[in-house]
Design brief:
The complex is a heterodimer of chains A (236) and B (325).
Chain A (H helix, E strand, L loop, with lengths): L7 E2 L4 E4 L3 E3 L3 E4 L2 E4 L3 E6 L9 E5 L5 H6 L17 E9 L3 E9 L17 H6 L4 H9 L3 E5 L22 E8 L5 E5 L6 E4 L9 E4 L2 E3 L6 E3 L7
Parallel strand pairs in A: 3-7, 10-12
Antiparallel strand pairs in A: 1-6, 2-5, 4-5, 6-7, 8-9, 8-11, 9-10, 11-12, 11-13, 14-15, 15-16
Chain B lengths: L5 H4 L44 E5 L7 E7 L3 H8 L12 E11 L11 E8 L14 H15 L10 E11 L17 H20 L9 E9 L11 E4 L8 E11 L4 E9 L14 H33 L1
Parallel strand pairs in B: 4-5
Antiparallel strand pairs in B: 1-2, 2-3, 3-5, 6-7, 6-8, 8-9
Helix pairs in contact in B: 3-4, 4-5
Classes of the chains: A mainly beta (236), B alpha+beta (325).
C-alpha cells in the first residue's frame, strides 16, 4: 500500500497522505495530504516502533550526509536556519555591560549533529568566522546582518546567580555556545549559558593568543601562562 | 500706431543659457534601410494558444541566497529581421530579467516586532531595458509592478515559519516588452500592455528565486498573460477580437484587453489578478457560454500552467544538480 516517494520534491508537490505519514520540516498539510513547501530531497524518517507513531516525511534543506561524503569534500553547504527556542547557537560577543552581554549569532547548530564543521549555515564558512580575530571595525557591517541576542546576567550560570560579574564571564570577541530561551522582542533574542556544556568555546587573551580552558571558570594563555576568568563551556 | 519695443525681446538674458538666435531643425534619423511598408511589422506566427519558449535557471548569483534568470523566446520576426535587415530598429523585444532574494535576515533595528516573514519587493528597469530610457529612480510603473508582485507572492509564502526576519526580493529587467509595435502611434485602446507581460515574467522568476532560497511556500506561483486582440487593419466593428495566450504586444495591431494572473497550479488558486481594457465587445466562438472576462482569466491561467511546467523542471534540475555535484 505504500506508494513510492519521489526522490526530489518541489514546493506544492503532494508527498503522501496524513494517514500514512506525519508532516516534518519543509512540508505542510493541505486537505489531509502532505505537500512539500521547499525544494529538496525527500526523506522519510522511520517510525519509532515503541511509540507506534507514523514515520515522518520531511524535505531536507541539506544534501544527506551519505551522498555528500561520496562527492567532493570542498563544496560549500548553504542554507538558512533561524534561531528557535531551545536551539543551540554559536555567537560572538559584541558588547559586555553590567547587566547583560550582547552577542551576534553566527551559526544555528542543527539538532542532528552538533559539530559546526558538519553543517555550516548563514552563507559563510564557519571555520573562518570562528577563527578570525574579533575586529570591531571590520565586523560592524556584517553584525548588522546577523541576528542579535542578549545574555542577561541571571542567565549566565545556574548557581550563585547573584554573584555573577559579567566582566569575568565574557569579553568582546569571545565565541559563546548558548541555548535560545526566547525569541525576545523586536531586536534581540535571549540566550542562556546556564549549563555545563554552554559558555565560552573560543577566546583570545589580552596578549591576543588563543586560550585553552583549564576549569569551568578559567582559561589560560599558552604563551604567557596567564589565566583569565571566563564562563567556560565543557569541552567535548 | 504704437511701435513695439522689439529691441527688448532680442536682448540676451545673462542668467540663462540662451538658444541659438536662428531657428533649429530637429535631427531626422533614418529608421529604414530601404523604403518599407506596413508589411514589415512584426507578426504573430504562433498559434493562438501557443506560448513562447521560456528559459529559466536558478542560482546564478552566488552572493544572493536565492536567484533566478528568465528569458522569453524572441519573436520570429526578430530572427527574420536579422536575416534580411530592412530596418535599423529591431522589430520586437523579448523579456529578459534577473531576480535575487536576500535573506532571511534580521529586520532593521527601527522595525517593529513581526511574528511573520516581511517580504519587500523591488522591480527596476535597467536604463537600457525599454525603447525609452528609464531613469535611475524607480518611477510609478516600477513601484506599481513591485506592489503587484508582492501581492502575488505573499499568498504563496508560509510567512509564520520565519519570525522576526525579512527577505528582500529585487528584480532587474534587462529587456522589457514593447507596449505596441514601435512605429505605431498610440491608438484609443493603447495602454502599457508590455507591463503585463513583464509582471508575468517577474512572478515566475520570483517564485523560482524564493524556492532557490529555501523559503517555505505553499506552492510555486507562475504568471500568465492572455489578451483579446483585433489584428484587422480595417474597421474593427466587422470582426470581433480574438483570445490569444502570451501575447507579444509588438506583434498585434490593437489589444483590446489583457489579463495577467499569478496562479498556484497544485492548489488551483489565483493569488493575483490584473485585468485591463474593455472586453465587453468581444465575442467568443459559438457554443462558448463564458463571458469575455472569464475567457480572459481562463486563458491567462492556461498560460500560467505552461510557465509552471518550465518553473517546476528548472527547480528539479537545480536540486538534482546540488545533490550530484
Amino acid at each position: 500500500m505504500t506508494t513510492t516517494l519521489p526522490p526530489v520534491a518541489i514546493p506544492g508537490q503532494c508527498l503522501g497522505s496524513v494517514a500514512m505519514y506525519s508532516a516534518g520540516p519543509g512540508t505542510h498539510i493541505q486537505q489531509s495530504n502532505i505537500y512539500a513547501s521547499i525544494a529538496g530531497p525527500v526523506v522519510a524518517d522511520p517510525a519509532q516502533p515503541k511509540t507506534g507513531t507514523k514515520s515522518t516525511l520531511r524535505v531536507s534543506r541539506v544534501v544527506p550526509a551519505t551522498i555528500r561524503a561520496a562527492s567532493a569534500a570542498n563544496q560549500k553547504q548553504r542554507y538558512n536556519t533561524l534561531p528557535a527556542v531551545d536551539s543551540i547557537v554559536l555567537a560572538r560577543v559584541t558588547r559586555v555591560q553590567k547587566r547583560q552581554a550582547t552577542v551576534s549569532i553566527l551559526v544555528v547548530l542543527d539538532d542532528a549533529s552538533q559539530d559546526p564543521s558538519q553543517n555550516a549555515s548563514d552563507n559563510d564558512n564557519v571555520a573562518s568566522i570562528l577563527t578570525s580575530a574579533a575586529n570591531p571595525e571590520n565586523h560592524n557591517s556584517t553584525d548588522e546582518l546577523r541576528f542579535q541576542a542578549l545574555i542577561r546576567k541571571e542567565d549566565v550560570r545556574a548557581v550563585e546567580k547573584d554573584r555573577v560579574v559579567m566582566e569575568d564571564m565574557f569579553r568582546v570577541g569571545d565565541i559563546v555556545r548558548g541555548s535560545v530561551i526566547s525569541q525576545g522582542d523586536q531586536s534581540f533574542y535571549y540566550l542562556t549559558t546556564a549549563r555545563n556544556d554552554l559558555g565560552i568555546v573560543m577566546a583570545r587573551s589580552d596578549a591576543g593568543n588563543m586560550m585553552f580552558p583549564v576549569s569551568w571558570k578559567e582559561m589560560r594563555d599558552p604563551v604567557t601562562g596567564a589565566g583569565e576568568p571566563r564562563k567556560v563551556a565543557r569541552p567535548y | 500706431m504704437l511701435k513695439l519695443p522689439l529691441i527688448k525681446l532680442e536682448m540676451n538674458d545673462r542668467r540663462r543659457i540662451n538658444g541659438p538666435p536662428g531657428g533649429t531643425r530637429p535631427a531626422v534619423f533614418a529608421s529604414h534601410l530601404e523604403s518599407s511598408s506596413a508589411a514589415d511589422r512584426a507578426r504573430r506566427e504562433r498559434q493562438p494558444t501557443e506560448l513562447r519558449k521560456i528559459f529559466l535557471k536558478t542560482g546564478l548569483i552566488p552572493s544572493a541566497s536565492g536567484s533566478s534568470y528568465l528569458e522569453f523566446q524572441p519573436s520570429a520576426s526578430l530572427a527574420a529581421a536579422r536575416e534580411t535587415p530592412k530596418s535599423l530598429i529591431p522589430p520586437s523585444s523579448a523579456l529578459k530579467l534577473a531576480c535575487t532574494v536576500h535573506g532571511p535576515k534580521p529586520l532593521p533595528r527601527s522595525a517593529a516586532f513581526s511574528p511573520n516573514l516581511v517580504l519587500t519587493t523591488h522591480v527596476k528597469y535597467a536604463p537600457f531595458a525599454a525603447r525609452k530610457r528609464k531613469g535611475h529612480i524607480r518611477d510609478a510603473s516600477e513601484r506599481d509592478l513591485g506592489v503587484h508582485l508582492e501581492t502575488a507572492l505573499r499568498g504563496a509564502i508560509i510567512a509564520e515559519r520565519w519570525p522576526k526576519s525579512g527577505i528582500d526580493l529585487t528584480i532587474t529587467i534587462l529587456e522589457a516588452e514593447d507596449d505596441r509595435w514601435w512605429a505605431d502611434a498610440p491608438d484609443s485602446h493603447d495602454a502599457s500592455w508590455g507591463m503585463m507581460n513583464v509582471l508575468a515574467g517577474c512572478i515566475t522568476a520570483a517564485s523560482a528565486a524564493i524556492a532557490d532560497a529555501h523559503i517555505d511556500c505553499l506552492d510555486l506561483v507562475a504568471g500568465g498573460v492572455a489578451a483579446l486582440v483585433s489584428d484587422d487593419s480595417g474597421d474593427s466593428s466587422t470582426t470581433s477580437p480574438r483570445l490569444m495566450l502570451d501575447t507579444d504586444p509588438a506583434e498585434h495591431r490593437s489589444i483590446m484587453s489583457a489579463c495577467v494572473v499569478a496562479y498556484m497550479p497544485a492548489r488551483d488558486e489565483i493569488t493575483e489578478l490584473w485585468l485591463k481594457g474593455d472586453s465587453s465587445k468581444a465575442a467568443l466562438e459559438n457554443g462558448d457560454a463564458r463571458s469575455a472576462h472569464e475567457a480572459l482569466i481562463d486563458g491567462a491561467v492556461d498560460a500560467a500552467r505552461g510557465a509552471y511546467s518550465v518553473l517546476g523542471d528548472a527547480l528539479r534540475e537545480s536540486v538534482l544538480q546540488t545533490i550530484q555535484s
